[in-house]
Amino acid sequence: MPLRFTLRQLEYFVAVGEAGSIAKAAEQVNVSPPSISASIAQLETEFGVQLFVRKHSHGLSLTAGGRVFLKEAARLLNDADALHDVAGDIAEKVRGPLAVGCLLTFAQIVLPALRMKFERAYPDVRVRQFERNQGQLLEMLQRGEIDLALTYDLELSQDMTFEPLILVPAYVMLPAGHRFAGKASITTEELADEPMVLLDLPFSREYFLSAFHQRGIRPNIAERTGDIAVMRTMVANGFGYGIANMRPLNTLAPDGKPLVFVPLDGDLRPLTMGVALPNSEHRTQTVQAFIDHCRHFVVEQGVFGAGRAVEHQSIG
Can you give the residue ranges of the HTH lysR-type domain (predicted)? Predict the structure, then answer.
């Protein structure tokens, strides 16, 4: 039977069991309380047992089953610590499993070629990939289901580190022949009455709409879709304009119709594409090798057109 829990989840559970409070445990392990709550809930669901009795005024108390579970979880974590000597040898090599998440809006452009080049350079690494929206990627990072995520700097929590790779400004996506297609840039005021095809994904949606809201403009949302390929095709077929931060080298929609990308003029901040990962005192050579590989790849391949590389500086 495949394991559906992680050592990190057990670590959070033991911390709460010993502290008697999620807030105190969060301070001890330097993780946000919601992340700890989610981990405990997942353990209870996975094993079908109630580990704590929740008391609003007195925090949490272990159930009888929870006390037995705490003892065994602590023993398992101690046994895992014994693997450090073995891991010390492995960590000096780029090898082993690596779970990589990628924002689905640009996964099709970036991930396949990036992964193939990485695996050719490091054949002893076994990569698993997951394409998800921003909300799902952040949840997977917090639950320890992926090692890192290629994504934007949107709504990252304090218990995450972000390695910036490239700065990507927003563009207005238009069908060929649109009256704005020949402009050097387009303002949100000019777009106010135009029909919009909104990329309707968590956090991305709010980011794009903020370009209008911060200027007191209500966009004319004619269509919504959660699929970037569908949005490009709808724009190319005249349903409206779209806004995106990626400007691929191939400006054709999936159905072969041409698109035009014009810079969005205004106060909307450019997004930074990078690698998000949980805060950790120890970073394996495999993870670091993948981050370094990403940094070289996005610049050399020019996957975001006019994107500008960001100087190496971890955030978090």
Answer: 5-63
Phi-psi map region of 216: left, alpha, beta (phi>0 left; psi -120 to 50 alpha): left
Taking a C-beta distance cutoff of 8 angstroms, is the pair 166, 302 a contact? no
Tell me which residue of 305, 298, 300 sits closest to 171, measured CA to CA. Answer: 305
pLDDT score recorded for residue 19: 87
**What DSSP letter does each residue of 258-285 carry, written as one string?**
BEEEEEEESSPPPEEEEEEEE--S---H
Say how far apart CA 102 and CA 303 lie, in whole Å.
15
Can you state the angle between helices 33-47 and 7-19, rounded to 10 degrees? 110
Which pair of tokens denotes residue 125?
A: 């690494």
> Token pair for residue 138?
């952040």
Contacts of 300 (CB under 8 A, 6+ apart): none
Buried b (16+ CB within 10 A) or exposed e, 213-239: eeeebebeeebebbebeebbbbbbeeb
pLDDT-derived band at 4, boundaries 50, 70, 90 = confident
Residues 125 and 140: their CA atoms lie apart, in Å, by 20
* Residues contacting 118, CB < 8 A, separation 6+: 125, 127, 289, 290, 293
**Per residue in 27-42, pLDDT tens?**
888 888 898 999 999 9
Contact (Cβ atoms closer than 8 angstroms) between residue 270 and residue 170: yes
**What does the alpha-carbon distance between residue 280 and residue 29 come to, in Å, rounded to a whole number?**
10
Kindly give, in sequence order, each residue whose CB lies less than 8 Å from that of residue 12, ignoring residues fewer than 6 positions away.
25, 29, 31, 35, 36, 39, 40
Give the whole-angstrom CA distance, residue 54 versus residue 238: 55
How far is the first Cα of the chain from the last one, in angstroms, to the nearest whole number? Answer: 36
